[in-house]
Amino acid sequence: MSAARRSPRLDVDHLLDDPRRHVIVCCGSGGVGKTTTAAALGLRAAERGRKTVVLTIDPARRLAQSMGLTELDNTPRAVPDVHLDEGGRLDAMMLDMKRTFDEVVESHAPPERARQILANPFYQALSSSFAGTQEYMAMEKLGQLRQRGQWDLIVVDTPPSRSALDFLDAPERLGSFLDGRLIRLLGGPVRAGGRAYRAFFQAGFNVVTGAMTKVLGGDLLRDVQTFVNALDTMFGGFRERAEQTYALLQRPETAFVVVAAPEPDALREASYFIDRLSEDAMPLAGLVLNRIHIDGPGGVSEKQAIAGAERLEELGEHQLTAALLRLHADRLAAASRDQRMGERFTAAHPDVQVTRVPALATEIHDLDGLREVGRLLSE
Questions:
Q1: How many Å apart are CA 358 and CA 65, to the nearest integer?
Q2: What pLDDT band is residue 2 in, cutting at 50, 70 and 90?
Q3: E-strand spans in the chain?
Q4: From residue 57, how far is each of 27, 62, 114, 368 by CA, in Å?
Q5: Which of 32, 91, 266, 338 could join 76 via S-S bond, C-beta 3.0 to 4.6 A?
């Protein structure tokens, strides 16, 4: 029996039906099908009777299209034409990074102070493009949704980051930056002779200031000081909320579903993420091995198909049959490669539960397609 067959199976329906489970986080490297997986899990959970909201951070807007919505924004919207079981509900939303940051400022600062912060050029650049802001605000929005208590289950599609680990690391980096000693120091008055300005660069902040100066010009320091002074009443709040949401991710009510394709880079990223979840004591549900090729029942082998195609090509006969035989051989080769990749992963992580989803012939573009993915996830 192969290592792939010995790997424990991820029971997706049990995961979705468990009333103790309130958050499912779909994570993995870019381009492996996280958004489709998150949407399919949300739809299946709702149609099995759970009040579900899907939070996506995917800029391609595929989730809205597949759910029959013209658009998604920062407000959860009901998904139409869902076959809801008794008590079920499905809402969906797409993170607006800047709007979420604005909401944090508006809810934690007096009105006049909030207006000062929102109008500040440094804040506008920070809230729109600073590295880690998207991941931080994804965590912020998750915390907000959980506090509202309107849903049994929140399914999160993590940001399309360069590394899946950015989702866990970036909020802490941004919280530390906003709550750190250095940026507090920048709030002090500029000393005579520009010594504080020089110290600013000498303190190792060159990367941040270089990027911001391109946007803001030579008035960067003044804008930073104005921002810090206006934000003074909120210091500590960013880190505190990040820590609260981080604690939520560690509780048993949360489950991480790592999504990967049978490709070396994607599985390597999945392995890193699984190891990190273990180190941080975060609950891993299992791995979705997505878009795998299936060799199907017994029949013509890869070698037989290639040999048959070559013979027909030499004879100059039945060219269509020869082409089909080569296509069959290619499919078998892909299935064999995918199986080896899966076995390599399970050999390194023998206790990780796995569900395998076959590659589909067409793109997912509607609810029926998502239902089919949900069915395949649960098999």
A1: 22
A2: very low
A3: 23-27, 51-56, 77-78, 89-94, 153-157, 254-260, 284-292, 354-358
A4: 11, 11, 26, 22
A5: 91
Q: Tokens 């390599």 correspond to what residue?
A: 344
* Whole-number Å distance between alpha carbons of 280 and 168: 10
> pLDDT tens digits for 319-377?
888 788 777 777 777 778 888 888 899 899 999 999 999 988 788 888 999 999 999 99
- Residue type present at position 49: G
How are the residues of the chain apportioned to helix, strand and coil, as percentages rounded to the nearest 5?
60, 10, 30
pLDDT of residue 207: 47
Angle between helices 111-119 and 97-108 (to 10 degrees): 150
pLDDT at 284 over 90: yes
3-state secondary structure of 78: strand
What is the number of residues in the chain? Answer: 379
Owner of token pair 């035989």: 325
* CA dist., res. 38 & res. 24, Å (int): 8
What percent of the chain has pLDDT above 90?
29
The CATH architecture to which 3-167+236-295+345-378 belongs is 3-Layer(aba) Sandwich (3.40)
User: Which residue is listed with tokens 């008055």?
Assistant: 189
> Diameter of the chain by CA atoms?
90
